[in-house]
Structures are given as structure tokens and as C-alpha cells.
Amino acid sequence: MGIISYLIVGLIAGALAKAILPGRQGGGIIATLVLGVIGAILGGIIGNALFDVPMQGLFHLSTILLAVVGSLIVLVIYGAITKRRGVRA
Question: Each residue of 53-76: pLDDT tens digit?
Fold first, then answer.
């Protein structure tokens, strides 16, 4: 997949991950895009390493599912980092 494909899949995956994960996440469309692209890359790595399923074309179901799972992982980590940073003792 090319960089444009990763951006499109990342935006879709980031938006789906924010819709699936309950709670209030900060960030606008740029943060969603960045988290989604990082999640798509992470999902591709996980899928290839664990299930021997590579990232395929732009509209393959496995590509979207792997990207969403990766985006959920990245979103949970991002939420943990931003919550920890915002709390002052």
C-alpha cells in the first residue's frame, strides 16, 4: 500500500476506533489521522507477525480490521499518556 492508502485507511481506522472506544478522547481530525496511521502500521505488523496476514489493498476487510485493532491499541496508549500528563498531585 502507498502512503495515500495508509492515510485513507488511517483516517477510517482512527475514526472507527474513536467510535468504538468509550470515553472522551481529545484531538481533532489531525490527531485521529495520526493515531489511525500509526494504528494501521501497528495492525499490519501484528497481523503479519501473529496471523501471517499482510496488509492488502485499500478496501480489503482484513486491512480495515487490522488497522482498527491497531488504532484501538494506539488510542488506549494515547489515552493513558494524556490522562497521566493532565493529572497534577
Answer: 766 666 778 778 888 899 889 888
Q: Report DSSP letters for the chain, one per residue.
A: --HHHHHHHHHHHHHHHHHHS-S-----HHHHHHHHHHHHHHHHHHHHHHS-----STT-HHHHHHHHHHHHHHHHHHHHHHHHHH---
What does the block give as the cell for 43? Answer: 495492525
Which pLDDT score is estimated for 6?
74
Residue labelled with grid coordinates 494504528: 39
Q: Which is higher by pLDDT, 25 or 80?
A: 80
